[in-house]
Predict the 3D structure of the following.
Amino acid sequence: MKVEYERHSLSPGQIAWKKFKHNRLGMFGLTVLIFAAVIAILGANIRPDSAEHANSQQISIARKNVGFKVSVIRVERNVSSSGNFFWDGFFFGGLPESYDLLPIHSVEFSGDSVKGFLYGGAANIRGEPFAYHVVDVSYAVEPQSIARKDEKSFTAKSIDGTPLLLDAKLVRAAAQSDRVGVKRYLLGTDKFGRDMLSRLMAGTIISLSVGLISVAISLILGVSLGAVAGYYGGWIDDLITWLINVIWSIPTLLLVIAITFALGKGFTQVFIAVGLTMWVEVARIVRGQMLSAKHLEYVEAARVLGYNNARIIVKHILPNILGPVIVISSANFASAILLEAGLSFLGIGAQIPMASWGQMIKEHYAYITTDMAYLAILPGLCILVLVMAFMLIGNALRDSFDYRVQ
């Protein structure tokens, strides 16, 4: 079914958006992208494990299946807390935990003490014993300052030196009700006992940021060089075209690896390396579009009006050739995500403890033939879904900017 548009009253961008909205696969890809962006931006504020990079490790609960649950006790850390707990959790940040979360086999409240055994790796296995004063469980205090005032109250000194007078009955009741509970791991735990769901969520910001910054670098270089080559022609075009062909002839992955080794291992080096290899595609597209557009009537009119070349390129030609550039950028975004995952899998991308999906596959690919195969499959599926989303968006954008397609 063809969709008719009132072209005389809509700008090219509005026409493209109307066509894009009628592309179901494109809208599905956009929905996935928005969902991933929300997870990446909110970061630790919405993750079950709010630590930085979701790196809270509990070896006793390593490699647990989907839906695993265990009894836990929250023991207040005897440290002073500071910082903006809300803003610290955005993007790559983490929320500082004020307590230690300990998986336990059993717990007993006896007098002024909280005693029990840590989780030993299975429901019927007891680990190391633990013992805390009931006040120390619920409050950040100096342990040596805890004392009985009488049968009904405790005295203690907080970490910042403030004297505390605590009702003994309320302290025990609060410790029993608020500090002991059950924690469920919806997607199980990895080989280090980290929450798998939180690690997957933390990996979203890695992939999206690498794609975004890499594409930005490639656009800056590609659009600039492609526009100059196509508009001026002559020896400038020959020189830039030669450079494009040289870079184009080198396999992308090998070039990225070489640049990464030159710059060093790390997350920052990844998006620089990827961006420096993807600009050639953008430059070729922009050059070709510029060669066609510079002879059109509106460009000739701009020259007659006395506009300089920089203004003609930036304000007149580039806005009219953005369609193909946007399409190639969406494809480059998907390529950047795949390259980052590949580099992290090889150990030269994002470094531990950063939650890169490629690094997560590397850590768990040995389990692919066991019943723990999902530890490697889940991050692979995340890469697949995000890359597919960008490809669907790219295909929809291609049709939206092609005015032969109704």
About this structure: The radius of gyration is 29 Å. Residues 1-5 have pLDDT under 50 and may be disordered. The CA atoms of residues 94 and 220 lie 32 Å apart.
